[in-house]
Amino acid sequence: MKVTVLSGGVGGARFARGLVEAVPPGDVTVVGNVGDDLEVLGLAVSPDLDSILYTLAGLNDDERGWGRAGETWHALETVAKLGGESWFRLGDRDLGLHLVRTEALRVGEPLSAVTARLARALGVEATVLPASDDEQRTWLDTPAGSFPFQEWFVARGHRDEVDAVRFVGDARPAPGVLEALEDADAILIAPSNPYVSIWPILAVQGVREALERRRAPCVAVSPLVGGRAVKGPADRMLARMAGGTTPAHVASCYEGLIDALVVDESDPTNGLGVRPVVARTLMTDLDASRRLAGAVLEAAA
Ligand code: GDP
Ligand code: CA
Question: Which of 11, 72, 202, 223 keeps 20 to 30 A from 65, CA to CA?
């Protein structure tokens, strides 16, 4: 059973980690969001792809929720001391990956090729694809003005309410992305932030259309537990832009694109417009991720 999953960073990565336990990793393709990518200190950083790679490689810091376990921060401390840009947290171990990626991109290697090479080197057996090799940037329109994703999310601590999300750059799909959607036996949408993790993937040329004409079932997982995001601003964004924080509001973000929504047992299932599947969706550990993946695959069978 070939499975393709659309994923943001942490929520998506945790889900993907369970998925590769439920099906052979060689049958899993993870399409990762690149709308949060940024250049910082001259380095090309792809936060969501890195969360996916680190988590699938078992190198992620579970407690912090992002970056690598056993991380140290000496380089960033030096940067700060020297008056360099230090608002975006880059750990010493993490920096090594950014150095390799930045150099590869500089000499003309596409992001998808570098990502495949990094995955192989880290022992990741699943296919990890950036949604696009082109530059695509997420912008947020807020009452305080418009901001690029990381300025809003990290520098301003996502405190501004969001009125609209925009994707700048008419990005083409990376090689393999449309094929992975067309050839899949099941298409899954991870419990990621719909607006800033999944929508930017759907905005890549041809991706939304590939989902609209899908032959395989498409099942999304709600990022809500008890009407709240487990982490981050998804609930506030849903409240303001979709009008509420129930699974029905999540489903409205994916209208015409999904056949079922996996909903936490603490949330209501009415008004979804698609088939509800109730499961325990909180991924507290690998076992919980694995069980959720199993339930989602069953819903897609
Ligand atoms: P980011 O790019 O790192 O922000 O990661 P994602 O967009 O992939 O994930 C963020 C979303 O994941 C948030 O909206 C969380 O509510 C959701 N999330 C995180 N952990 C869990 C979990 O254990 N269960 C569910 N259902 N959602 C989760
Ligand atoms: Ca992200």
Answer: 202
